[in-house]
Design brief:
Elements: H1 4-12, H2 22-34, E1 38-41, E2 47-50, E3 56-61, E4 75-78, E5 81-84, H3 91-105, E6 111-115, H4 123-127, E7 136-139, E8 147-152, E9 154-163, E10 166-167, E11 172-178, E12 184-185, H5 197-207, E13 212-218, E14 224-225, E15 229-235, E16 245-250, E17 256-257, H6 260-269, E18 273-278, E19 283-295, E20 300-309, H7 312-328, E21 332-339, H8 348-361, E22 365-369, H9 375-381, E23 386-389, E24 394-395, E25 403-405, H10 406-422
Parallel strand pairs: 3-6, 3-7, 7-23, 8-22
Antiparallel strand pairs: 1-2, 2-6, 4-5, 5-25, 9-20, 9-21, 10-17, 11-15, 11-16, 12-14, 13-15, 13-19, 18-19, 19-20, 24-25
Protein name: Aminoacyl-histidine dipeptidase
InterPro entries: Peptidase_M20, Peptidase_M20C
Pfam families: Peptidase_M20
């Protein structure tokens, strides 16, 4: 039995939320050097670890989406799954890092590329410029055993801003809240029927004719389906909770946004979720996540979304449509952190990975994923390199329900070992 799970538990105790992973970076650099590897770290904290003349590069990101109590992570095992109490687990992509640590312990002649801030726009991957020696790269950021990923969605974050003003409101004041929904990954879970707290809140306000909005704080991360949304409103008609919406009357008389009614209308009109299915691949083809809406005390309204598509033309069309939509409501929109799709490609390397997967699991499928893998970005920088992606079964990443199947981790490592020996 390898030490992978113990290494993973060690990683959970070192804070590594996106933008705040310096301690883990330092830990991994020290770990690799102590085992005789050469290590390089660039300006954005990508880590390149290597030994000898390797033919295979293993790649993963070392930041995580921190939800709930994270980075305070308390792990436990239930019915063969590792989970975390009231927080995201960080198995995405910590299990991959733990596998790499095991391989470094064994002194394998490999390259390891550990990228930074993947979860907030593939920031590290976009800056990779190391002199990689290997002819093949195996990404370890997929989340289903017995599947080999050979393509992924491209994406873009579209944000919108409007400066509003406040004036006197009418009627009673209420806190209208949607809290503790299940949440999930805005790519791989977007077609699973998971409700968006923002959409639930917006529909309630629209249904009950609420137009006076004092403030709203909704959503957690751009790449997470919103689990929480809270608005302070005023209404001349009494409001009561229903379904997932709780209502609490407040003894306050806040000012209200002059265009709060337009924001409520925008939330109701926004087409959150899957826009188009890819029947050939059996996954969403185009989707968008209405991720975050905040209105601060100075009247600044900020909206953040995450758009995905399996090809460049569809992503461009969705981006332009979304910018136009925000413009229609008087918002100034801009596109941030755009990254390319990875076009599905079958090579002798993907066929090798597929064969080794079958040897261990008895089955395998070549797949594409409706989420951003760093292969798309890195492949543009290293056009002669061949790519594939695998990983153990992880469910509900980017949420407090995240869990990793422990026997899948061990079996996936056996697959990885077979690939390393065969390349």
């Amino acid at each position: 039995m390898s030490k992978i799970i113990e290494y993973f538990k060690t990683l959970t105790q070192i804070p590594h939320c996106s933008k705040e992973a310096e301690k883990l970076c330092d830990f991994l650099v020290k770990f690799a050097k102590e085992r005789g590897y050469e290590v390089e770290v660039d300006e954005v904290k990508n880590i390149y670890i290597h030994k000898g003349m390797p033919t295979l590069c293993l790649q993963a990101h070392y930041d995580m989406v921190c939800m709930g109590k994270a980075p305070q992570i308390e792990t436990y095992v239930e019915e063969g799954w590792m989970k975390a109490k009231d927080s995201s687990l960080g198995a995405d992509n910590g299990m991959a890092i733990a596998m790499m640590m095991q391989l470094m312990d064994e002194g394998r002649v490999l390259e390891f590329l550990l990228t930074s801030d993947e979860e907030i726009g593939l920031i590290g991957a976009n800056e990779v410029a190391f002199d990689l020696k290997a002819s093949c790269m195996l990404n370890l950021d997929s989340e289903d055993e017995a599947e080999v990923y050979i393509g992924c969605a491209g994406g873009a974050d579209i944000t919108a801003f409007k400066q509003d003003s406040y004036f006197e409101g009418r009627g009673d004041c209420y806190e209208v809240a949607v809290k503790g929904l299940s949440g999930g990954h805005s790519g791989v879970d977007i077609d699973k029927g998971i409700p968006s707290a923002i959409k639930v809140l917006g529909h309630y306000l629209t249904k009950h004719g609420v137009t006076q909005l004092a403030s709203i704080y909704a959503g957690e991360r751009r790449n997470s389906i919103p689990a929480n949304a809270v608005a302070i409103v005023r209404s001349e008609m009494p409001l009561e909770g229903e379904g997932d919406v709780t209502v609490r009357q407040l003894n306050e008389s806040p000012l209200i946004l002059s265009e709060g009614d337009k924001l409520i209308a925008l939330i109701e009109a926004f087409k959150h979720g899957v826009r188009k299915e890819n029947k050939e691949l059996g996954i969403p083809d185009v989707s968008i996540n209405l991720a975050i809406i905040n209105a601060d005390e100075q009247g600044g309204i900020v909206i953040e979304t995450s758009a995905r598509a399996m090809d460049a033309a569809s992503l461009e069309e969705l981006t332009e449509e979304t910018v136009s939509f925000f413009d229609m409501y008087g918002f100034e929109a801009k596109v941030e952190d755009k990254y390319p799709a990875w076009k599905p490609d079958v090579t002798d390397f993907t066929e090798l990975v597929d064969q080794k997967m079958k040897e261990v699991f008895g089955k395998s499928r070549l797949m594409a994923i409706h989420a951003g893998l760093e292969c798309g970005v890195i492949a543009e920088k290293y056009p002669k390199m061949k790519f594939a992606s695998i990983g153990p079964t992880i469910r509900y990443p980017h949420s407090t329900r995240e869990k990793a199947k422990l026997d899948s981790v061990e079996k996936t490592f056996i697959v990885l070992d077979k690939i390393i020996q065969s390349v």
